[in-house]
Amino acid sequence: MSNVHEINSKEKAIEQASLWVAKLDRELSEQETQQLQAWLDSSTVNKATFLEVVQVWDKLESLSKLGLLFETQAQTSFWQRNKILASAASVAFAALISLSVYLLSSPIQEIKYQREYATQIGEYSNFTLQDNTQLYLNTNSLVRVTYTDKQRLLELVKGELFVDVAHDSTKPLNVIARNTVIQAVGTAFNVELKEGRVELVVTDGKVLVEQDLDFVNTPLLQREVNLPASSLSLKEGQFAHITSHLSNTLVDSTDRKAVESHLAWQNGELIFRGEKLDAAIKEISRYTDLTFTFKEQRLKEMQIAGLFKTNDIEAFLSALQSNFDIKVIRADGRVLLSGS
Questions:
Q1: Please, what is the end-to-end C-alpha distance for the chain in angstroms?
Q2: Taking the domains of the chain in order of start, what are their residue ranges?
Q3: Backbone angles phi and psi of 130, in degrees to 5
Q4: Pick from 165, 138, 161: which is nearest to 151 by CA?
Q5: Alpha carbon separation from 165 to 71, 97, 119, 158, 190 (Å, rounded)
Q6: What is the reported pTM?
Q7: Gyration radius from the chain CA atoms
Q8: Burial class (CB in 10 A: 0-12, 13-18, 19+), 177
């Protein structure tokens, strides 16, 4: 605990000393001089750190104006008497200065347009963005759209989107989904946030995929917004389930019917082609406030096929009863599925 306290005190001393040294280019007021004197007298670490910062910033001439604060011998013999402290302070201060220079020099992109788009449970909608890019949102989705002078940025916060990207080779369109960046300049693809993964389907053109935490966390502070050519690449007709480790991602091809089924939500439909009932119920649950429960686990393994409207859950439940001999028991917003 004492080591942690010592390090924290040193970091605070460096920060405060840097602020005082920055003021030395102008003459300190009498009140400021007294405040500086009090701060220096409060700790030997403060005094030593202040001298170190003065040395690094080459402010000894300015310090001579404050002769009452230090004895001349202290100024000239500091390095000899405090080699260990001076070395540690110089390293810490250099790191602090480097970080400050980086933050100050990092270009912040000029925001041209910014807006959030959202849908409620059971709702889907489409929007035309400024550059004629078409954005489609599925049920219970939220996306933050930001256009800058360098890129077109879509941050998928929840749900699912399909984007038909207007071609612009000078400004790539980047979709951020959790820790993943998906980039295109003129193509069409679908992105869905699922439990433990991001599901990507490309319907036209090609996209690049990368997991860059720096880009994800600070997309508007990036000097370079184009993903490297070595990034994972998907083309038309391919899909991927992207986990937290991109190296584990498998890219596979899919046929036209599978793509149509996956994107049927754009027409307000759900198409099942032999999926297990458990998976079908999870998909249906996205479009309603109802909560579904299986009384018997074996029901989850049943396979289901058919086309259903996303806004007609009753028709789906009726089909379960009439075609699959499953009892539907309702109570207070809950639906219990039971075998006959």
A1: 65
A2: 5-67, 112-258, 268-339
A3: -55, -35
A4: 165
A5: 69, 42, 20, 20, 11
A6: 0.68
A7: 31
A8: buried
Name the fold adopted by 112-258. Jelly Rolls (2.60.120)
CATH 3.55.50.30 assigned to domain 268-339? The reply is yes
pLDDT per residue as tens digits for the range 190-248: 999 999 899 999 999 999 999 998 999 999 989 899 999 999 999 999 999 999 899 88
pLDDT in tens, 144-194: 999 999 999 999 999 999 999 999 999 999 999 999 999 998 899 999 999
One-letter amino acid at 6 equals E
Contacts of 327 (CB under 8 A, 6+ apart): 321, 337, 338, 339, 340
Q: Is 205 exposed, middle or buried (0-12, 13-18, 19+ CB in 10 A)?
A: middle
